[in-house]
Amino acid sequence: MFPKIEKLCRKFENERGLISAERKTVLKTIATAIDSEIEKKGKARLVYICTHNSRRSHFGQVWANIAAEFYGIAALIEAFSGGTEVTALHPNSVTALKAMSFEITSNSVGTNPRYKIKFGEGLSTSCFSKVYEASENPQKDFLAIMTCSHADENCPFIPGATKRFATPYGDPKNFDETRLQDEKYLERALEIGREVCYMMSLSASKKDNAYGC
User: Fold this and answer.
1) d(CA 126, CA 13)
2) What predicted TM-score, i.e. pTM, was given to this entire model?
3) Residue 211 confidence class, pLDDT cut points 50, 70, 90
4) Alpha-carbon torsion angle 76, 20, 50, 136, nearest 10
């Protein structure tokens, strides 16, 4: 893992006090579901869902893969993202990821390019906008994590999901083309990273006893 990304994960460990008690309760519930999926099926698949799959859901996907690597359970976790509509990974989201020291490349063009988000040597995840039921995502036996209120309210049932959870975040889109644009996108990416790392650490704490790793 790139040193600056690893440093961020360690920073998140010291910032757990910034997570509200209410949100910690939700994250603990998701961690318990992750444990159950691993114990029953050998792996937990997470699908982060937001309406346009352009901002918050991608941050969730990226950080879940990183946190699993950081806490030594990457072989047991797969993270994806999707939306109710197809748009694109927003350029401001890409800017925020680059600001956190991710290496980002794309070999495709058009309105919805595919990006390789690299967080270490041989460590990366692929990001592009797609509906949550797209063929690139698991079709069953996954945990659905809603990252925006709109998707949460309009998708009360996610076909194929073992369980569904709501962890809505403020939309950085509200600051597009303002002087706070870059600050708010980075703020949201870091908030999601902090919470995902906390959640993943709870599952990792059971690794030795429950997972036989």
Assistant:
1) 26
2) 0.94
3) very low
4) -10
Whole-angstrom distance, CA of residue 95 vs CA of residue 79? 21
Distance CA 144, CA 164 (A): 5
Report d(CA 202, CA 151) in Å as an integer: 26
Alpha-helical regions (H) of 71-180: 91-99, 149-154
Contact between 61 and 94 under an 8 Å Cβ cutoff? The reply is: no
For residue 109, the one-letter residue type is V
- Distance in angstroms (rounded) separating the CA atoms of residues 74 and 213: 11
- pLDDT of 132-187, one tens digit each? 999 999 999 999 999 998 877 767 679 999 999 999 999 999 999 999 999 999 99
DSSP element (H, E) containing 24? helix 21-41
Q: Six-digit token pair at 37?
A: 């999926």
Place of tokens 């030594």: 72
Question: What is the dihedral sign for C-alpha 129, 130, 135, 138?
Answer: positive
Q: What are phi and psi of 82, to 5 degrees?
A: -165, 175
CA 2 to CA 10: how far, in whole Å? 13
Torsion of CA 67, 59, 146, 18, to 10 degrees: 70
More confident residue, 208 or 144: 144
